[in-house]
Amino acid sequence: MVYLISLGAGILAGVLYGLINVRSPAPPAIALVGLLGMLLGEQVVPVAKRVIEGVPLTRAWFASECQSKITGVQASASASNNADNEATDASRQG
In 3-state terms, the chain is what percent helix, strand and coil (to 5)? Predict the structure, then answer.
């Protein structure tokens, strides 16, 4: 199922390229910058939700929730535990 979603997103990107008359595939540097933008943009949603809920943004939360999705490297267990502890502390305060 994930592959079909990925294929659909690729087709949508191809259609957009066609509409704005950009040759596909884009030069590698431009394509990589675009992919980085997509990864960063995807993390705006959880950050915005957290801000709207009034929960503080912490380095440990970002490392456990966002960093691995951007870099593809899993967060360490200690970072995950720190995020859990900070979430518990925040819920006790509010």
Answer: 80, 0, 20
